[in-house]
DNA sequence: ACCTTCACG
DNA sequence: GACGTACGTGAAGGTG
């Protein structure tokens, strides 16, 4: 039937449908494999109600279509590049459901329309116009306020959730103006959801008032001078351009070059077989029954899960019941392109895949890819060997690539579109590793989930987050150990020497485990209330860290080498002196031998210690002994040089990558319980700075030609957070006034006026300030300050008297920890404190940890937020972020761009807590520039 | 594999 | 009343 007079078109806002279904319904997964399908089910319900007439009182359609958003980039981004820029990321269990809703629409035999470069709203606007022009009418099935501008003669809206028609009266109620002026009001009021700027300070109410007074937006802007209220007048004059841009953003385009004609959208009866097949595939039992009854055909059978265990038992151990047993013999070895194509097709159909890579090294910058494993269904996984070579027994030790493996280039070319496909979720365990392996081969893995990070977000402080541990804890399965395959010590070999059959069992199981972990952990994120932590603090950091690690930092070998020699010489001199003073030669580096020399031979005072019964010879002991004898002082000097040489000047040289000439650390995102990062291989977070000799090692960290190193660090961030969390007015005011916080503390405590402050008094106050952050004790402070314990306790008492809020904070935090067995940062990160209610000495550690974790953890969260925002903020500048050292970020920047980079990064860092959290104290970032790290810091 | 020591925030 | 104590890390070298 041709569309014309009497025809009625229903335009369904598909994306809105999906989101409403997703948020309105509890998370639901397909029984057989855990695929999230809740939103799909809600979508199908709504769609079925639409086409079957349902329980609605609206007019029945003669024509119908579902409109989707094809992409997030549209012509509006050209008008305003921040359009929709602050949209939160899609929930990870919603993303794979998008392609399924398209499939569902087609299964219902309803036209499914989307167009690259246009939002669904514009397509809807266009069809609404076409419908009325053809003499018919249209109903927009949505409750989105952005569509309300379309309401008018022949066009109304229908809110399917509230079963309510939205016509002119409802629009007037919402906006205070009729549909024809909705755009004007929106342009003024802006929209925080879509990031439409509007006019600052003007909301819906004021906007409607102004439009009603002046008639329309153009008149208002032209006559802005006449507005009586000075602030309003100024805002409109100053932001006229921004308001006009906003209008272009909110105005829907009614002439999108749509391809489907109105006629082609005529309502069609669903093909019952195709529809029921789809519903059965989704395992929607109720819906399948309802629809098959209505269509008068028999419902297809849907297999029930293998075990129909009672509910209580199921809740106790869901993983064991719903998952098939592990069976390494069932894993497939993919040896040709045909088999690989089948796997890729399965993945494209599913919308997600667990991925794992096998390589020749744990160092991603040197590792060669050996094989890839994939899994989309528990118990089913494959391994794709790519670079296995003959075993090590080969006569010349030469690597002969084994037959029966796909050409690596060909395999990667086939996998690349899938790995980069925005609708396919890639699941990994520590996926930063695999992402770097792929990135080195030009493949940008996205989007992704990481089971290690999920575990960290939920269980930090409870256990570690390695795959073996997670598998045993949450899947009750001990993975195949890697040790027997790789050997150890002299006989150790790399994974490419492992036989392909053994490799398949091991590697495919890793993908299988990762998939099952994802299915087990992902739904728990919501229940544990840490989805936000995972999605804003953990997942987005992965590509940022990967980039930093791959860039690495330039280290000058010559500088280090010269230092090593100088240290060696000095050490030799000191060693001779020490032997002379001792009257015998011994290994100065052996605490045991040194203890015997000091305490047995020389008879110095200072007894045994430690559970091993050995003499303690730590720096603090030796410093005390130094007043009695010359030898301990020499040993201290020797130790310092020994440390610098072995840990830094020697070791760092070995870490210079021969290909890049740079040092590539590896950041462990789950290394520290508090949310801090840890740096390994090498650790670049503990490069010396406190002594002059050590500090010079930083001269070896240099910028490349034409560049500078730029260092930006938060000033006193933990004390600022303490002042905020514990709510200490005096401390907060001192930070706001930019005062010296330690001097201020000293002045408050000891009554010394600031202008008479001595360095010694200030030093003591500083120690107390830090002590507070660490969960102060009289003993600890006494040892740190080397004062009698009673004196230290008196300091603490005074401190608590002067700042009673601190004591309150400590008490409340410990109380909270005892009640919940965890503590939280300002951003909701949880750090579990399982020992908090224990007896014994463990409880003491747990108490101090509980006091410290929210402070240290909040600081860690803040710099993480900054780091995830920085790549965007410095986009286009010749600047790279290289290192993070807890409260410091180091960049390498072309000289001409140094000032710009500092300005942008500083702004991001100082505002990193916003908009999630308000802090009553300003965050201050200091910057330094130089040719090397010593100058820059 | 564990302990001690010491480098950093 | 005794116990053992600052918080969070990683690397190197000695020892058993």
Automatic annotation (TrEMBL):
GO terms for molecular function: 3'-5' exonuclease activity; 5'-3' exonuclease activity; DNA binding; DNA-directed DNA polymerase activity. Residues 694-897 form the DNA-directed DNA polymerase family A palm domain. It holds the Pfam family 5_3_exonuc. It catalyses: DNA(n) + a 2'-deoxyribonucleoside 5'-triphosphate = DNA(n+1) + diphosphate. Residues 7-268 form the 5'-3' exonuclease domain. Residues 331-526 form the 3'-5' exonuclease domain. Its EC number is 2.7.7.7. One of its GO terms (biological process) is DNA-templated DNA replication. In addition to polymerase activity, this DNA polymerase exhibits 3'-5' and 5'-3' exonuclease activity. Single-chain monomer with multiple functions. PANTHER family: DNA POLYMERASE I, DNA POLYMERASE NU. This is DNA polymerase I. It comes from Pararhodobacter marinus. The gene is polA.
């Amino acid at each position: 039937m041709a569309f014309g007079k009497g025809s009625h078109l229903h335009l369904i806002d598909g994306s809105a449908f999906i989101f409403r279904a997703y948020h309105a319904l509890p998370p639901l997964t397909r029984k057989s494999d855990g695929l999230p399908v809740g939103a799909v089910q809600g979508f199908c319900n709504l769609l079925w109600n639409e086409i079957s007439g349902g329980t609605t009182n609206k007019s029945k359609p003669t024509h119908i279509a579902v409109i989707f958003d094809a992409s997030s980039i549209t012509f509006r981004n050209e008008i305003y590049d921040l359009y929709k820029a602050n949209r939160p990321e899609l929930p990870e269990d919603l993303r794979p459901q998008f392609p399924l809703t398209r499939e569902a629409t087609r299964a219902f035999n309803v036209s499914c329309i989307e167009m690259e470069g246009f939002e669904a709203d514009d397509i809807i606007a266009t069809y609404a116009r076409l419908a009325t022009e053809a003499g018919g009418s249209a109903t927009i099935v949505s409750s989105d306020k952005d569509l309300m501008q379309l309401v008018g003669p022949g066009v109304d809206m229908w809110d399917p959730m509230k079963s309510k028609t939205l016509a002119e009266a409802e629009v007037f109620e919402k906006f205070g103006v009729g549909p024809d002026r909705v755009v004007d009001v929106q342009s003024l009021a802006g929209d925080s959801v879509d990031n439409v700027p509007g006019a600052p300070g003007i909301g819906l109410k004021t906007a409607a008032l102004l439009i009603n007074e002046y008639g329309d937006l153009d008149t208002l802007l032209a006559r802005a001078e006449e507005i009586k209220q000075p602030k309003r007048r100024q805002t409109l004059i100053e932001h006229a351009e921004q308001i006009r841009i906003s209008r272009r953003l909110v105005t829907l385009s009614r002439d999108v070059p749509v391809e489907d004609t109105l006629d082609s959208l005529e309502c069609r009866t669903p093909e019952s077989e195709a529809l029921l097949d789809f519903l059965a595939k989704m395992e929607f039992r109720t819906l399948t029954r309802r629809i098959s009854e209505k269509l008068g055909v028999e419902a297809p059978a849907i297999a029930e899960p293998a075990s129909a265990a009672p509910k209580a038992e199921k809740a106790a151990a869901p993983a064991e019941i719903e998952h098939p047993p592990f069976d390494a013999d069932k894993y497939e070895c993919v040896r040709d392109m045909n088999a690989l194509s089948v796997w890729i097709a399965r993945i494209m159909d599913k919308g997600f895949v667990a991925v794992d890579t096998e390589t020749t090294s744990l160092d991603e910058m040197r590792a060669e890819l050996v094989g890839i494993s994939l899994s989309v269904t528990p118990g089913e996984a494959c391994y794709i060997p790519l670079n296995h070579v003959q075993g090590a027994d080969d006569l010349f030790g030469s690597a002969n690539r084994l037959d029966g493996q796909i050409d690596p280039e060909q395999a990667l070319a086939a996998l690349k579109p899938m790995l980069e496909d925005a609708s396919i979720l890639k699941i990994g365990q520590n996926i930063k590793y695999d992402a770097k392996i792929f990135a080195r081969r030009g493949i940008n893995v996205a989007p992704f989930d990481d089971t290690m990070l999920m575990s960290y977000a939920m269980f930090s402080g409870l256990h570690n987050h390695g795959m073996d541990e997670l598998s045993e804890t949450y899947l009750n399965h001990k993975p195949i150990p890697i040790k027997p395959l790789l050997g150890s010590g002299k006989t150790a070999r790399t994974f490419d020497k492992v036989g392909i059959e053994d490799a398949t069992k091991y590697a495919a199981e890793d993908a299988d485990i990762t998939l099952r972990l994802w299915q087990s952990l992902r739904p728990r994120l919501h229940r544990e209330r840490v989805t936000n932590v995972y999605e804003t603090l953990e997942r987005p950091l992965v590509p940022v860290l990967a980039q930093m690690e791959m860039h690495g930092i330039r280290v000058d070998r010559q500088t280090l080498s010269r230092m090593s020699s100088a240290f060696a010489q000095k050490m030799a001199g000191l060693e001779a002196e020490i032997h002379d003073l001792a009257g015998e030669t011994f290994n100065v580096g052996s605490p045991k031998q040194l203890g015997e020399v000091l305490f047995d031979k020389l008879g110095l005072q200072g007894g045994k210690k430690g559970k091993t019964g050995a003499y303690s010879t730590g720096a603090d002991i030796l410093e005390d002994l130094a007043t009695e004898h010359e030898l301990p002082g020499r040993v201290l000097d020797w130790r310092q040089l020994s440390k610098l040489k072995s840990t830094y000047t020697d070791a760092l040289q070995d870490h210079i990558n021969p290909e890049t000439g740079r040092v590539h650390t590896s950041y462990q995102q789950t290394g520290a319980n508090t949310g801090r990062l840890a740096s390994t291989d090498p650790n670049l977070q503990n490069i010396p700075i406190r002594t002059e000799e050590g500090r010079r090692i930083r001269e070896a960290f240099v910028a490349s030609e034409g560049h500078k190193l730029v260092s930006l660090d938060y000033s006193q961030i933990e004390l600022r957070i303490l002042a905020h969390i514990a709510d200490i007015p005096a401390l907060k005011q001192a930070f706001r006034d930019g005062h010296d916080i330690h001097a201020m503390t000293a002045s408050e405590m000891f009554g010394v006026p600031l202008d008479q402050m001595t360095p010694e008094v200030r030093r003591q106050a500083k120690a107390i300030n830090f002590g507070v952050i660490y969960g102060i004790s009289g003993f600890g402070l006494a040892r740190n300050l080397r004062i009698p314990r009673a004196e230290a306790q008196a300091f603490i008492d005074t401190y608590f008297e002067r700042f009673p809020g601190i004591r309150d904070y400590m008490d409340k935090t410990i109380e909270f920890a005892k009640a919940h067995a965890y503590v939280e940062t300002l951003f909701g990160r949880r750090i579990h404190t399982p020992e908090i209610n224990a007896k014994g000495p463990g409880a003491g550690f747990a108490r101090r940890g509980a006091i410290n974790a929210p402070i240290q953890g909040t600081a860690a969260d803040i710099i993480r937020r900054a780091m995830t925002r920085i790549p965007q903020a410095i986009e286009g500048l010749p600047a790279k972020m290289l290192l993070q050292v807890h409260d410091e970020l180091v960049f390498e920047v072309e000289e001409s761009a140094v000032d710009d980079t500092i300005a942008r990064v500083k702004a991001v860092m100082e505002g990193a807590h916003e908009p999630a959290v308000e802090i009553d104290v300003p965050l201050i970032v200091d910057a330094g520039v130089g040719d090397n790290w010593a100058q820059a810091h």
